[in-house]
Amino acid sequence: MLSEKIYTLRRKSGLSQEQLAEKIGVSRQSISKWEGGLSTPELDKLKALSECFQVTMDELTRDQTPDAVPEEEKQEKAPVTDSGSKTGILLCLIGSFCLILFGILMIVNPSAAGQVSESSMVTLNGTGILITLFVLLMLLGIALIFRKK
Fold it and tell me: Could you tell me if 71 and 18 lie in one domain?
């Protein structure tokens, strides 16, 4: 991808985003957006980039990646997990834990299931309500984990 190439070539050249921006006449934020894949440089800026890095426009824009990025640079650009996924994982774990705990309670003390059912005012007995609640909690967690980013 172009964003990865710009990042890799800039790092290989030993330039900061600010230094590269000054060389080609754009803001540091533009470089950041290009490297993050949030925007694409215009044709004149692509030409300036290719001259700055001493590569052809074809080498800059084709879909092959340049030489491998050193391991410490990969760690610097590691993607951040969004909070929705973390919340989803947490909800799944809580739902699973509650289902397991409820199952153990029903095995150890079967009369507890009767007490839960008697305390429910809904036609669906209390045991069914708890199990449904825990499963819904897990499904909500799964939805948060796999939603479109």
Answer: yes
